[in-house]
């Protein structure tokens, strides 16, 4: 019997709004009287790169930095997720929708649909550099490389990103399953409209009061307050705060014009397609 296609991928390049999307979903689905604690959000959208899941499938300790070992286990990890027979399993991923070393990272056989969140790469770059403790120039060079990967670190296996443009195209080009594309900037500017589209895409009824409450419970101020009080399990040891700014346009004051020029040159086609470049 074939595996049920129950995975709804919540996909993005790192630092593009994936966590915020999952926190909104958790609050909408729980529909509680107070916000879902940010450190419980993983219960509503597991990551596909959690070392523990690979070790459970292997039945032993593994080396998360050995990508040959983790890639060999990946199919079984995803099969384990869909084995719960749920209609929908939300799975967060930063992986490119392409093969890595001959292994299909996002197999169609497990996939019901996908939500792809993208952000202006200039702002993403600033957040990415801050989160991983990197320089802006180093980050600009990395996001232009096809072999760009997030090395295994505290609790996660290697994630294969590719360049920013390749990543966006890999998820947004025509697929055999439905893909909803959301821009982070639209989510900031029109959260009701953006999140309503998200709910419709995953087949959940949109209720106005519930929508407004979930947006309020996942606001930047609320998330920042919770992180200040109790920390956040997904924050990086190289960065003080995960929820640092939550705005768009920060690149204008933080990026060297030479780097801005480089990013626009490297990613012109995709930036233009998604409204990040006028010229």
Name some characteristics of this structure.
alpha/beta, Rossmann fold, 9 strands, single chain, two-stranded antiparallel ribbon, 279 residues, 13 helices, globular, five-stranded parallel β-sheet
Report on the structure:
With 279 residues, this protein is of the alpha/beta class. Helix content is 44%, strand content 12%. The chain has a domain of 193 residues: P-loop containing nucleotide triphosphate hydrolases (Rossmann fold, 3-Layer(aba) Sandwich), CATH 3.40.50. The strands form three sheets. Strands 2-3-1-6-9 form a five-stranded parallel beta sheet, with helices on both faces. Strands 4-5 form a two-stranded antiparallel sheet. Strands 7-8 form a two-stranded antiparallel sheet. α1 crosses α9, α2 crosses α3 and α4 packs across α5. The chain is globular, with a radius of gyration of 18 Å. The termini are far apart.
Write a concise synopsis of the structure shown.
The protein is of the alpha/beta class. The chain contains 13 helices and 9 strands. It has a domain at 7-119 and 156-235: Rossmann fold (3-Layer(aba) Sandwich), CATH 3.40.50.
Topology, element by element:
Layout: E1 7-12, H1 18-30, E2 46-47, H2 51-58, H3 67-82, E3 89-93, E4 99-100, E5 103-104, E6 111-118, H4 121-132, H5 136-142, E7 149-150, E8 159-160, H6 164-172, E9 179-183, H7 184-189, H8 191-202, H9 208-217, H10 220-230, H11 251-254, H12 257-266, H13 268-273
Helix pairs in contact: 1-9, 2-3, 4-5
């Amino acid at each position: 019997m074939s595996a049920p296609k129950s995975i709804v991928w919540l996909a993005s390049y790192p630092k593009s709004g994936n966590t915020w999307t999952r926190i909104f979903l958790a609050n909408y689905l729980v529909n509680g009287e107070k916000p879902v604690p940010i450190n419980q959000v993983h219960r509503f959208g597991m990551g596909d790169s959690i070392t523990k899941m690979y070790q459970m499938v292997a039945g032993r300790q593994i080396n998360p930095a050995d990508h040959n070992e983790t890639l060999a286990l990946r199919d079984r990890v995803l099969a384990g997720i869909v084995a719960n027979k749920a209609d929908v399993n939300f799975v967060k991923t930063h992986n490119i929708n392409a093969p890595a070393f001959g292994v299909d990272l996002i197999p169609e056989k497990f996939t019901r649909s996908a939500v792809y969140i993208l952000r202006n790469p200039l702002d993403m770059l600033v957040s990415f550099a801050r989160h991983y403790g990197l320089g802006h120039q180093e980050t600009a060079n990395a996001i232009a490389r096809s072999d760009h990967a997030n090395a295994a670190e505290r609790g996660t296996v290697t994630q294969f990103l590719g360049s920013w443009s390749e990543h966006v195209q890999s998820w947004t080009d025509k697929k055999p399953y439905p893909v909803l594309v959301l821009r982070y900037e639209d989510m900031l500017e029109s959260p009701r409209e953006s999140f309503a589209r998200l709910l419709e895409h995953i087949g959940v009824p949109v209720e106005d009061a519930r929508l407004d409450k979930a947006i309020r419970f996942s606001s930047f101020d609320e998330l920042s307050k919770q992180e200040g009080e109790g920390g956040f399990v997904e924050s990086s040891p190289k960065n003080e705060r995960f929820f640092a700014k939550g705005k768009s346009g920060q690149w204008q004051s933080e990026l060297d014009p030479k780097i801005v020029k480089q990013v626009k040159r490297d990613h012109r086609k995709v930036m233009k397609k998604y409204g990040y470049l006028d010229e």
